[in-house]
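# nightly structure sweep
# worker-07 picked up a monomer target from the shared queue
# config: single-sequence mode, recycle default, output format = C-alpha cells
# input follows
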Amino acid sequence: MVEEEHVTQYASLKDPRCIWLEDLLMHDYTEAYLYYSCYMTEKDENIKKIWKYSLSKEIAQLHKDVELLKKYEKKDGEQVIP
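# output follows
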C-alpha cells in the first residue's frame, strides 16, 4: 500500500500536458542526474564505478528516448529539456 501511495503522489506531480514520450524523457533525465550526482559525490572508488556504469546506461537510454520523440512526435529533445 505504501508503494501504491508513492506512485500516486509521483504521478500527481507530472505535467498533465506532457505526452507519454516527453514524460519518459523527463523521467530518464532525472535518473541520469541522480546517477551523475551520486558518481560525483562518491568517495569509494569501487562504488563510484557502479555509479559511472549506471550513468552510462542511463545516458544511452536518453539518446534512445530522443530518437523516439523525433520519430513519433517530430519533436527535438531540447524542446522538452532546454
